[in-house]
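Hi there,

I know you've been waiting on this one. I reran it after we fixed the sequence typo, so this is the corrected version. Both the input and the resulting structure follow.
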Amino acid sequence: MNVRRLIPTAALAGAVALGAAALTSCSGAGAVGGEDGKLGVTASFYPLQFVAEQIGKEHVKVDGLTKPGVEPHDLEITPKQTAQLGEADVVLYLKNLQPAVDKAVAQSGVKNIVDAATLTELEAHGASGHDHGAEEAHAEGEGHDHSHGEGGTDPHVWLDPVKYAEIAKGVGAALEKADPGHAADYKKNTDELVGKLAALDTEFKDGLRNTASRTFITTHSAFGYLAERYGLDQEGISGVDPESEPSPARMKDLQAVAKKDNVTTVFFETLASDKMAKTLATDTGLKTDVLDPLEGITDTSQGADYFEVMRSNLKNLQKALGAK
C-alpha cells in the first residue's frame, strides 16, 4: 500500500481558513450544470466524498474517483474519469496525495477546484511518538519516486475530527459559492456536520482520558493527528508505507517499547496485509486488532460510514490501551 505519501510544505503556501482562496470566481447560480439541476461534485477519495454528500445532500450529485477497496495513492485515472472531472461543477481533492488526480485536475479546466490541504494546517509526523521531524530512514518508501522533502507533512488530517471539521467548513463555503441558490441549506448542513464532529471529538477525549497505556503500535503512521489530538504516542512499524519491510533494528525497538509502555495490541488495517503486525505480535506475545485509516469504506470495514468506523477505532483503542 503506497498511500502514505507525505505532502511537501509548499502545499501549505497561502493556506486559507475557509478555503475561499482555493476557489476561482464562478458565474453564480448558472454554474449548476447537471441535467437534473444538481450541482455536480467530483471528490478524489472517500473522506472528501463523505463531506460533500453530508453538506450537499439532495442538491448535489457526488462522484468519487477512488472506488471502495482501491488504495487512493495507487489510483490510475481512466479516460472516462478524466472526462467526468472536466464536466464537474466542483472538484474536491487533496494535493500531492494522488499524483494521477493532481495531473487530471490541473488539466480539467474546472473553475471551482478545492484543495483540502489549504483548508486546515498540515503537520509533519514521524514514525515514532510525537516526532515532528523527518521520517526515520527506514520508513522511507523504497522504490517510490516521492521524496519526503524538507518538513514533509502528513496527509491523514481527516482522522482528527477537529481538523476534519475545518475541511468541512471549507467545502461548505465552496458549495455555497458554486451554487448560491442553495447557500442557506449548505450552511445549515455544514453546521450540522461540524456539530457531529465536535461530538465525536468529545467522545474520543472522554473515552481516551484515563488509560493504562498511552502508546499504540500500528503497521504504518497514519494516526499522527489522532495521537496528537488525544495525547497518545503512535509507534509505526514501517512509517508511511506499511508494505515496506521494517529493519530488524526497528522491530527490536518496538519490542522494547511494547514492554516499557504496557502495549497489548498491534494494529493493522483492513486494506493492507496484516503479516508484519502478526509477526511482531507473535514475537512479543501481543494481540492484533484493526485501526482503520478510513481511506475507503468496503464490506470489511467496521462500520458503514466515517462516524461508525471512527467509533469502532475508538472502541478498539480503548480496549488496547486499557481505558478505565
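Quick highlight: Confidence is low (pLDDT under 50) at residues 1-31, 130-151.

Best,
R. S.
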